[in-house]
Amino acid sequence: MKKVLALSLLLLLSAQPAAAFSPARSARFLDTWSLMNNWDAGIRPLDFVQTKDKKLVFLLGSDGKVHVYSAVGEHLGAVPVATTGQPVAIDIQARGKQLYVVDQNGICTIYNISLDTGRVSASVRSRWRSGVAQPLDIAHLPERELVFILSGDSEVYVYAAAGQRIGTIPAGWGTVAINLVPRSRRMLLLQEDGSCSAVELLF
Predict the structure, then answer these.
(1) CA–CA dist 106, 130 (Å, integer)
(2) Residue 16, SS3?
(3) What is the spatial distance between Cα 134 and Cα 153, in angstroms, rounded to a whole number?
(4) pTM to 2 decimals?
(5) What are phi and psi of 74, to 5 degrees?
(6) Is 19 helix (H, G, I), strand (E, B) or coil?
(7) By the 8 A CB rule, do 112 and 125 touch?
(8) What is the DSSP letter of 36?
(9) How far apart are the two ends of the chain, measured CA to CA in Å?
(10) How far is it, in rounded angstroms, from Cα 9 to Cα 179?
(11) For residues 203 and 140, which has the higher predicted lDDT (pLDDT)?
């Protein structure tokens, strides 16, 4: 059965931080949202992320590929990412030039992405086995070229882009997703009960 992917770019970029820190103000903000576009992706989505300029959407599908769309739903191609196991989460560089993927076996792959011809092409930049048990989510910090992987053991493992482990951060039981706030030292953690907390990163 096909799934309809409804994307609200405004909500994706702005609502999550607001909800994390001011529920009352968030509710008033959400009253102003409007649907910008939607389309039928034709696959079961597992994860998705949008470029900072709002021009591209990267959708991880159950078919083991990351599908790339324009903001109006034009399919620009797909990157096969299930080479080492079923992928579970993705992240991208702000402009979509790099794609970060972690699979069920804890293997992290960074792809260089190009759309120079109007169609997506990809090459592997680096790949390593993280050793993370039951990876749930992935995020990256571009200012320091760091990769963060949330594990089912409620730890966030931090790696350099080449795969060296830098350290770990306790996430708390029930954490299901992480996000890094651009140009800050703040990591957001989403719990399975819907609550959100923030951690200040001490580098």
Answers:
(1) 5
(2) helix
(3) 8
(4) 0.83
(5) -70, 130
(6) helix
(7) yes
(8) -
(9) 46
(10) 16
(11) 140
Helix (H, G, I), strand (E, B) or coil at 74: coil
Q: What is the dihedral of CA 188, 194, 195, 200, to 10 degrees?
A: -10
> With the C-alpha atoms ordered 198, 7, 78, 3, is the resulting torsion angle positive or negative?
positive
CATH superfamily of the domain spanning 4-200? YVTN repeat-like/Quinoprotein amine dehydrogenase (2.130.10.10)
Alpha-carbon span 128 to 110, nearest angstrom: 9
List the domain boundaries for the chain: 4-200
Token duo for residue 60? 């991880």
143, 157 in Cβ contact below 8 A? no
Interval 58-106: pLDDT, tens: 999 999 999 999 989 999 999 999 988 999 999 999 999 999 999 999 9
- In DSSP terms, 146 is beta-bridged to 141, 160
Six token digits for residue 113? 């992405």
Do 18 and 11 touch, CB atoms closer than 8 A?
A: no
Q: CB neighbours of 23 closer than 8 A, spacing ≥ 6?
A: none
